[in-house]
Amino acid sequence: MRVAVLLALAAIIVPVAAQRQDPGPKVPFEDEGACPFLRCTYGDWVAKAAIPVRSERRANASVTFQIAAGETVTSLTGVVVTTRAGRVGYRRSEILTTAEGDVEIQSGELLHLLASEGGGFWTVWFKGRVYHELDGGAFSNAGCKIDPGRCPANILQMPQSVWWVQVRNTQGQIGWTNEPDKFDNRSAR
């Protein structure tokens, strides 16, 4: 009986200890060129409201020009800046599929979420390396939200990030905005 209790405690303590030892990625993490949702595309975007455009990717940078509601600009590129990585805890071992190849994660290990790529795919950090297009079905599908116990992993903390987009207006002025939600025409048809 005593051995069974000790084994049960070890099953709880070991994963917790493994989670505490993982320092996670350095933030801020910048994913240059990222377009963070399914079918996201850069190109001609139409402003739904007035939008200030800044000289640099900083909220307090000087405003270089304003985009008027209804104005079309060209979005050139973007950078998703993660200021706090998310965390996913695994209850059982899994093989994860990424653009860089398969990754094996063990029970008790943490996967760090850097940015959503849309459609259930993520940019993640695991054991000192960044992986793209990780299929998050093991922790981010609708079934996991309804019944977390049926999934091999759970999101412990969502990431915090800001998406900066570089735009050019018809006068050729270029700058940055962190208000991409104020544009239409952001996704490929």
Tell me what you see in this structure.
The protein has 189 residues and is of the alpha+beta class. It has one domain (2-184). 15% of the residues lie in helices and 44% in strands. The strands form four sheets. Strands 1, 2, 5, 13, 14 and 15 form a six-stranded antiparallel beta sheet that branches. A five-stranded antiparallel beta sheet has the order 11-10-9-6-12. Strands 3-4 form a two-stranded antiparallel sheet. The longest helix has 20 residues, at 2-21.
Topology, pairings included?
Layout: H1 2-21, E1 29-32, E2 44-47, E3 51-54, E4 63-67, E5 72-84, E6 86-90, E7 94-96, E8 103-105, E9 110-118, E10 121-126, E11 129-135, H2 137-140, H3 142-146, E12 153-157, E13 160-168, E14 174-177, E15 183-184
Antiparallel strand pairs: 1-5, 2-5, 2-15, 3-4, 5-13, 6-9, 6-12, 7-8, 9-10, 10-11, 13-14
- Following the backbone from N to C, one meets helices and strands in this order, namely HEEEEEEEEEEEHHEEEE
Rg, rounded, reads 20 Å
Mean pLDDT: 88
Number of extended strands: 15
Count of alpha and pi helical runs? 3
Biggest sheet record: 6 strands, antiparallel
Shape: elongated
Proportion in β-strands:
35-45%
Number of self-contained structural domains: 1
Class from secondary-structure proportions: alpha+beta
Distance between the termini: 62 Å
Spans of at least 5 consecutive residues whose pLDDT stays below 50 are 3-20
- What is the percent of helical residues? 10-25%
